[in-house]
């Protein structure tokens, strides 16, 4: 058994590298409000109760409550309109809340466009399979609608943006939230690179390339509609691999930061 003086030395402040900090009251209040949002007690668009009611409920002071609100505001979980009498409003964030920090992290870590494409090849075919096998009819209809709008996007010189949106939305429609968040993180990077790699000086993709691309998109729609998950996955993997070969030609060692300026 350790002697008292030995135990005291082991847990002294000077030696307590892993000391546990008690959460501030504001953090506790923020945690409880956050849980109310996660549990659905507070929905997107709902206003938080008035300050007086929250202060009485949590038994905290006004400064403490306002600090808790600022914590949630910094997380973009609530929106506060200064000077408004309506108070704080719940705003459920989407994938964009992590897209910008994740993009910055990729830039700082020296990630290449090839890294990004490899990640997309890992997640998108799996999402295509999920969409085909378990997607709702509304999800299938939306995918078809997006593809039907591709010709207009090409004629407007916005094929890169429309294609990036198709890839991201297809993953979102699969119903897998984790995959959707990852796709959202990579969306802006993918859109910028696609624009840089395939769009010429006239801001138009050559017709032969566009026709081949549209045919592949329509094939995906058909396989998804037939609920043929295996073939949808295989088709989209081939599509992504072919796209990677074309998009990375000449950009094999290009880093993410080089296209995000």
From TrEMBL:
List the Pfam families. FCD, GntR
Native source organism of the sequence: Mycobacterium heckeshornense
What is the name attached to this protein's record?
Answer: GntR family transcriptional regulator
Q: Which GO terms describe its molecular function?
A: DNA binding; DNA-binding transcription factor activity
The organism that produces this protein has a lineage beginning with: Bacteria, Bacillati, Actinomycetota, Actinomycetes, Mycobacteriales
InterPro entries assigned to the protein according to its UniProt record, in alphabetical order: GntR_C, TF_FadR/GntR_C, Tscrpt_reg_HTH_GntR, WH-like_DNA-bd_sf, WH_DNA-bd_sf
**CDD domains linked:** WHTH_GntR (cd07377)
* Entry keywords, A to Z: DNA-binding, Transcription, Transcription regulation
């Amino acid at each position: 058994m350790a002697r008292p003086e030995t135990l005291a030395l082991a847990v002294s402040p000077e030696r307590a590298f892993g000391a546990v900090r008690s959460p501030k009251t504001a953090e506790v209040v923020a945690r409880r409000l956050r849980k109310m949002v996660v549990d659905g007690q507070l929905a997107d668009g709902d206003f938080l109760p008035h300050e007086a009611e929250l202060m009485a409920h949590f038994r905290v002071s006004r400064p403490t409550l306002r600090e808790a609100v600022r914590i949630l505001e910094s997380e973009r979980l609530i929106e506060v309109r200064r000077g408004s009498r309506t108070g704080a409003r719940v705003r459920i964030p989407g994938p964009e809340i992590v897209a910008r920090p994740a993009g910055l992290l990729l830039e700082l870590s020296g990630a290449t466009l090839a890294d990004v494409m490899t990640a997309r090849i890992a997640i998108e075919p799996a999402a295509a399979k999920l969409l085909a096998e378990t997607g709702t009819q509304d999800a299938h209809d939306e995918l078809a609608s997006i593809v039907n709008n591709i010709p207009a996007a090409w004629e407007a010189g916005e094929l890169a943006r429309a294609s990036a949106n198709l890839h991201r939305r297809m993953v979102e429609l699969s119903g897998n939230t984790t995959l959707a968040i990852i796709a959202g993180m990579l969306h802006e990077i993918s859109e910028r690179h696609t624009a840089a790699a395939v769009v010429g000086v006239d801001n138009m993709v050559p017709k032969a390339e566009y026709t081949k691309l549209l045919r592949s998109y329509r094939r995906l729609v058909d396989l998804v509609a037939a609920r043929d998950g295996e073939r949808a996955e295989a088709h989209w993997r081939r599509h992504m691999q072919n796209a990677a070969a074309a998009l990375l030609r000449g950009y094999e060692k290009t880093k993410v930061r080089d296209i995000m300026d």
